[in-house]
Amino acid sequence: MKMTFNQLWQIGATCLLTLNTVYAEALRDPTQPPPAFYNQAHSTDGSGLLDGPVLQSIILGANHHAAIINGQKVMLGMKYDGATLIRLNEREAILRNPDNTLKILTMDYAMQKKILSTNGQASFAKKSGQIKQ
After folding, report:
1. At the top level of its lineage, which domain of life is listed (predicted)?
2. pTM for the whole thing?
């Protein structure tokens, strides 16, 4: 049985395409926090992993309010894991569970805001709201 050029070309192309998928590696999302972020001492079972949702970021724009919870973007008023995101501020997100209990997620790490004055000099405001110059 003699193979034609077309048949050989199809077999070769199939082998090359299969080879690429076998050796393809999954790329890590560069916007996700490092795995050590989740390995904090807040767990109740001793595993080192945090229990429940973790608030990673808050987006407060003129027309766009959202929270990043466990890597998932949740718009204000939308649901995350059955709970509705009902309130956001600079440090916390509040979720209302189906049984009307509230879950308050906070960002526990230190934040610092840079405030620009009219003369172009910057001062820094800490979490407590005090301004240092």
Report:
1. Bacteria
2. 0.49
